[in-house]
Amino acid sequence: MRYRPITFERLAGELAERVLVLDAPWVRIAVDGPAGTAALADALVDPLRVGGRAVQRVSTVDFLRPASLRFEYGRENPDSRYWSWLDEGALRREVLDPLGRNGSGEVLPALWDAARDRATRSARVSLPAPGVLVVDGEMLLGRGLPFELTVHLQLSAGALRRRLPQDEQWALPAFERYEEEVRPAEIADVVVRADDPRHPAVLEGAA
User: Fold this and answer.
1) 146-198 pLDDT, tens digit each
2) Counting Cβ atoms within 10 Å, is residue 186 exposed (0-12), middle (13-18) or buried (19+)?
3) CA–CA separation, 90 vs 63, rounded Å?
4) Cα separation of 34 and 172, whole Å?
5) In whole angstroms, what is the distance from residue 190 CA to residue 192 CA?
6) Residue 54 Cα to chain centre, angstroms
7) Cβ atoms of 138 and 19 closer than 8 Å
8) In 3D, which of 156, 102, 155 has the Cα closest to residue 129?
9) For the segment 130-156, what is each residue's pLDDT rounded down to a tens digit?
10) Which of 24, 102, 142, 146 is disulfide-compatible with 182, CB 3.0–4.6 A?
């Protein structure tokens, strides 16, 4: 495998160019990875808008299950973090499906405030066509969620240990299981090595 050095700004521009040629009323993008996903997802917004697309940003941290469900087996359970923290049914129903080819275009940008453990009470918003949805989060691939473009930020085990906050080190087995079972670098449309966020590199032929 050959990786091409790139900046995140240049990467965002290349991804935007790739999206702008797609023939669909809405394009749904997933930016997946254990760290750095929000920054790349945010960087995509301006070049897409310059290209004439309406853009809606969504983060999976706003679609987590209530604490009573997330922490059913303890607050630091890697298996729960891996598979059941994300309310993927709600993400699909409220965000992804409405932007399918025959969808309404009406999406809910946030559902649950995990810090306060209560509903956000956010209002639905209309994403006019042609529009782009940019979703960032961890362990998004391998769930059968409908995305037109998937980007995976790949971190080595050592880099992940360095970048994961100390109070989240317990989640390392969840990310290891994701790598072993889903193999996101093999199924993502674009793979970015992001061990050093200052010097990313994109897998040649992927972007």
Assistant:
1) 999 999 999 999 999 999 999 999 999 999 999 999 999 999 999 999 999 99
2) exposed
3) 7
4) 10
5) 7
6) 18
7) no
8) 102
9) 999 999 999 999 999 999 999 999 999
10) 142
